[in-house]
């Protein structure tokens, strides 16, 4: 075979297409291979490559079997398809290198439409370029081999003799190959028949998803919404025996009663005394017009435990379990009676990617063991030096939570303001809650839960901004208090306002004033200065808002106002950048291993940076003299998985427990230092704040009456009272939206240690874990169908776990539709 030097372009195009689509499919299959029995995977393996084979053969034909204008058109089409496949495959491989996960093109295009989202995508440019370079190199090396293989196969399949030459100058000596051609035809036909039969008889799930081919899957994602498994529309509560009339509860005091499904149970005939006049945004359902509409439409209300659109009724919620009828936890009740615990101001700090196991970082944790194991030594001197560095990681988190790290104290803090020395008396400092899970691993869905006490919308990204919150947010409640008396409030926040329509969300939730990175970077900004350093695609280091924070606090004192302030940290967000002058420690072993642990090492340095910042925030309150009358709530928006924790890193389509365990602290110097455990979600933040405000005597009589009434409207329980895991056979269910929101749902219960990852689309597995026996989810059980998973769960964990799994799937599917109804989602 003689090949002309000018004949490499078209063979290279074919080779690039073959390598791109094949590498994409191989990666796709490898990510799912472990979830299937090896025999089934091997049996159906040929069916996964049907469309790739057809696409490559068609491209070969368009390039080499036409002449003239048809050749030009065929070449243009093939180049376009090849270029797209090459870019998509490089993106898929690059995304896998960064996250260990699989890219979804519908979500990628949505992120790409957001300016800040494009910055997020560009952070993976290095991995993309590396993958693209590898594909180009492999394609170049294999170009003639791949061309020759396809040419010989097609020539033998469709003719008995090859051509003497083709238009690219590839000369092949004519040989009689009739016998070889017949054998090729026979084997091709047999293979096609067998593969076709396997394709027709294989199960749809998960094999249809595993057969998806770039670029077809890309165009499919552009043209339609992701197919949902559980789009069942209106439905009754799936466990009706638990909400029968014998379990109904009558109203008393501020408790509205609990009568799910009872006719006229959620018709508002008696408006509370505070619900008069022009109510603030968020209180529409208490207005007179809404109340009249309730009366007119009472005969059309949905029954059997399902709410009406955008109207939440605690009386009709079959999942609601309240603990407001229980006495407050004894140490808190005793402190409130013995000492005055004023709460004039409330500060809520929402901490980006704050895993519970780093707030504070503890000796003996899974992450600590991973760090020590990277050194591969038992040398006590080396391990002592490592632990000395780790002891300085989160000293302020230790003070705020009251939890010891387990390391010997060696806190050398370096910060612009000299570090924070906690002035709180021993045994005091507030409530640290263990066991809390976020309700969403997407930051702003989590923010809605923390500020408004509502469940998020289980669809991709922030469709919440296109609806109205079905509960008033804490800022709107404070505005109600202001209207009941002639007072004012100052509110502030700091982070970029452009990503995922956060600025719209803040206005919707009731923030009167916000400070974003877009504000402080203007030359007209009060504290603008040269050399402001952007550390990631979301903005600047936290310390850039330090003077603004001081101004807000000082202004509050000067005007004798009550303050609600919220701050959203950002340094611990990917890519975990810190200022250039900040000294970064190496926590994991070196010697070439740092590349493996580079991301989590950067994350830990960002954690240390933010820990110092939190201490300096507390110093502002101490210096202003308002610390003893300020409730500071520290809560994580979600966690952050790394390869050291799970096969998939990041929060995107990753239900691993490290993405869900978060810290929650209610800090007040005059409250007792209390460690409590509650398998709750951050939906409890708002009712707990209100409970503390009322019982600390920090509200006047009218505000207290309104707060007591509103506390009974929320789904979450108060965390300063004994948490009710069960009530009359019902469980306190917990739900967690998995980033980006519409693909998977985490379902758990405060009554048991079990956890289910419920797929909302056909291309995801069911995943079950028992957090008692596997707290770090190192070996969860998986199945492509619920029936398959139930059998595995029963064999390993018993019939009780299998029964819970069945109920969890039913309740999870019901909750999804209920949330869509509450958010008026169409």
From TrEMBL:
UniProt superkingdom: Eukaryota
Record has Methyltransferase as a keyword: no
Membrane-crossing residue ranges in chain numbering: 12-30, 42-64, 76-98, 128-146, 180-200
Coiled-coil ranges from the UniProt annotation: none
InterPro entries reported in the protein's UniProt record: Alkaline_phosphatase_core_sf, GAG_Ulvan_Degrading_Sulfatases, Sulfatase_N
Compositional bias per record (Polar residues), positions renumbered to this chain: 303-312, 406-417
Start and end residues of each Sulfatase N-terminal domain: 499-693
One Pfam family recorded for the sequence: Sulfatase
Keywords tagged on the record: Membrane, Transmembrane, Transmembrane helix
Region annotation Disordered: where it falls in the sequence: 253-316, 401-420
PANTHER family associated with the record: SULFATASE, SULFATASE N-TERMINAL DOMAIN-CONTAINING PROTEIN
Full protein name: Sulfatase N-terminal domain-containing protein
Organism: Penicillium nalgiovense
């Amino acid at each position: 075979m003689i090949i002309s030097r000018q004949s490499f372009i078209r063979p290279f195009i074919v080779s690039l297409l073959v390598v791109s689509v094949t590498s994409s499919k191989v990666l796709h299959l490898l990510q799912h291979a472990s979830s299937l029995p090896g025999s089934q995977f091997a049996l159906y393996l040929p069916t996964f490559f049907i469309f790739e084979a057809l696409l490559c053969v068609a491209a070969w034909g368009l390039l080499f079997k036409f002449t003239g204008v048809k050749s030009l058109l065929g070449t243009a089409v093939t180049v376009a398809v090849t270029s797209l496949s090459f870019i998509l495959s490089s993106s898929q491989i690059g995304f896998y290198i960064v996250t260990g996960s699989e890219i979804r093109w519908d979500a990628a295009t949505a992120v790409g439409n957001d300016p800040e989202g494009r910055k997020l995508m560009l952070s993976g440019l290095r991995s993309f370029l590396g993958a693209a370079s590898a594909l180009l190199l492999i394609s170049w090396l294999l170009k003639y081999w791949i061309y020759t293989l396809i040419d010989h196969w097609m020539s033998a399949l469709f003719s008995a003799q090859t051509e003497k030459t083709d238009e690219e100058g590839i000369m092949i000596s004519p040989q009689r190959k009739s016998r070889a051609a017949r054998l090729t035809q026979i084997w091709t036909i047999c293979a096609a028949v067998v593969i076709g039969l396997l394709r027709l008889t294989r199960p749809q799930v998960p094999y249809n998803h595993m057969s998806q081919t770039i670029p077809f899957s890309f165009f499919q994602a552009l043209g339609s919404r992701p197919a949902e498994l559980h789009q069942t529309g209106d439905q009754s509560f799936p466990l009706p025996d638990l909400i029968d009339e014998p379990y109904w509860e009558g109203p008393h005091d501020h408790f509205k009663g609990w009568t799910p499904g009872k006719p006229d149970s959620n018709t508002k005939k008696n408006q509370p005394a505070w619900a008069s006049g022009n109510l603030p945004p968020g209180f529409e359902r208490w207005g007179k017009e809404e109340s009249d509409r309730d009366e007119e439409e009472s005969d059309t209300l949905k029954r059997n435990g399902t709410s009406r659109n955008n109207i939440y009724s605690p009386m009709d919620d079959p999942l609601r379990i309240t603990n407001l009828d229980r006495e407050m936890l004894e140490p808190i009740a005793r402190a409130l009676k013995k000492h005055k615990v004023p709460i004039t101001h409330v500060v809520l700090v929402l901490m980006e990617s704050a895993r519970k196991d780093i707030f504070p970082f503890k000796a003996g944790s899974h992450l600590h063991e991973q760090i020590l194991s990277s050194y591969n030594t038992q040398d006590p001197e080396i391990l002592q030096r490592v632990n000395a560095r780790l002891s300085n990681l989160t000293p302020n988190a230790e003070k705020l939570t009251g939890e010891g790290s387990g390391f010997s104290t060696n806190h050398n803090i370096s910060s612009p303001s000299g570090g924070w020395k906690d002035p709180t008396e021993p045994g005091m400092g507030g409530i640290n809650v263990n066991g809390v899970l976020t309700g969403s691993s997407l930051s702003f869905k989590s923010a809605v839960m923390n500020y408004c006490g509502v469940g998020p919308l289980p669809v991709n990204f922030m469709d919440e901004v296109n609806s109205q919150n079905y509960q008033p947010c804490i800022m709107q409640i404070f505005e109600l208090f202001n209207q009941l008396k002639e007072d004012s409030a100052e509110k502030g926040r700091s982070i970029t306002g452009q990503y995922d329509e956060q600025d719209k969300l803040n206005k919707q939730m009731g923030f009167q004033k916000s400070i974003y990175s877009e504000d402080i970077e203007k030359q007209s900004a009060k504290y603008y200065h040269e050399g402001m350093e952007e550390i990631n695609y979301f903005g600047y280091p936290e310390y850039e808002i330090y003077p603004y924070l001081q101004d807000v606090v000082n202004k509050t004192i000067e005007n004798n106002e009550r303050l609600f302030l919220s701050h959203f940290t950002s340094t611990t967000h990917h890519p975990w950048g810190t200022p250039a002058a900040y000294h970064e420690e190496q926590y994991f072993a070196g010697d070439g291993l740092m590349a493996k642990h580079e991301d989590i090492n950067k994350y830990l340095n960002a954690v240390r940076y933010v820990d110092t910042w939190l201490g300096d925030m507390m110093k502002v309150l101490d210096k202003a003299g308002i610390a003893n009358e300020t409730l500071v709530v520290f809560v994580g928006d979600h966690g952050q998985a790394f390869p050291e924790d799970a096969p998939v890193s990041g929060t995107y389509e990753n239900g691993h427990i490290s993405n869900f365990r978060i810290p929650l602290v209610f800090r007040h110097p005059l409250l007792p230092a209390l460690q409590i455990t509650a398998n709750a979600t951050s939906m409890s933040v708002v009712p707990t704040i209100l409970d503390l405000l009322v019982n600390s005597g920090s509200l006047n009589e009218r505000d207290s009456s309104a707060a007591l009434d509103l506390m009974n409207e929320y789904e979450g329980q108060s965390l300063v009272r004994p948490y009710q895991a069960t009530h009359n056979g019902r469980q306190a269910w917990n739900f967690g939206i998995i980033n980006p929101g519409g693909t998977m749902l985490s379902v758990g219960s405060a009554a048991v240690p079990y956890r289910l990852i419920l797929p909302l689309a056909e291309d995801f597995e069911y995943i079950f874990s028992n957090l008692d026996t596997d707290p770090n989810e190192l070996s969860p059980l998986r199945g492509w169908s619920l029936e398959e998973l139930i059998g595995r769960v029963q064999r390993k964990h018993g019939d009780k776990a299998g029964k819970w799994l069945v109920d969890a799937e039913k309740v999870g599917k019901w909750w999804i539709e209920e949330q869509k109804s509450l958010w008026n989602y169409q």
